[in-house]
């Protein structure tokens, strides 16, 4: 079974967590695209969706799913999004698609976070996938030096401007054994807008698509 088929399985399984007449938070990425396509079948049950990126907004609108402003409707009962890596505590690395800041905002404003992914995303230690960090353009070099001090190898993501008008540094050569501690430390570096660690606010449920079906893991 291909990774795309496993992503579709996880995306379909997330529909079971959606109650009627709610506003739903929706993330960004390839697995989420499958979720949006599946969501179109039950859009009549939704009051609307809060989107985490311009790309997601376009896909939702293509399916004629109403997109609402978080300021007008929050807090949200449920947020559904993918991950680039997840550990067994459901702490995540996200941001491969460049939407980490808005994803983090919508996740923080949601009561429950359901993460959907294929089984390859589950790891024992976060960091093999380079950690995305969104930075203010004028702070790029300063942030890069600070990350070098901490043992990372920052690489500017080429031809990438976020929806917020910022840059992304991808940090290689990390083994993140204390994700929450790392997230707090990096949040305090001047010029970082958001770090792609979702450890202080991890997922509540992880749905992993496998060839044998969908594996469900819960936080704690």
Helix content: 25-40%
Overall geometric form: globular
Provide the β-strand percentage band.
Answer: 25-35%
User: What name does the CATH topology of the largest domain carry?
Assistant: Rossmann fold
CATH class division of the largest domain: Alpha Beta
CATH architecture classification of the largest domain: 3-Layer(aba) Sandwich
Low-confidence region ranges:
none
Number of strands: 14
Span of the ends, CA to CA: 30 Å
**Mean residue pLDDT:** 96
Task: Count the DSSP helices.
Answer: 7
The radius of gyration computed from the alpha-carbon positions, rounded to a whole number of angstroms, is 17 Å
> In what order do the strands lie side by side in the largest sheet?
3-2-1-4-7-13-14
**Can you summarize the main beta sheet?**
7 strands, mixed
- What structural category arises from helix and sheet content? alpha/beta
Quaternary organization: single chain
Number of domains: 2
- Tell me the series of helices and strands, N- to C-terminal: HEHEHEHEEEHEEHEEHEEEE
Task: Describe the 3D structure.
The structure is a single chain. This protein is α/β, with parallel strands linked by helices and 220 residues long. It folds into two domains: 3-124 and 200-218, Rossmann fold (3-Layer(aba) Sandwich); 131-195, ACT domain (Alpha-Beta Plaits), CATH 3.30.70.260. The protein contains seven helices and 14 strands. α3 links the parallel β2 (48-51) and β3. α1 crosses α2 (30-39). The model has no long low-confidence stretch (mean pLDDT 96).
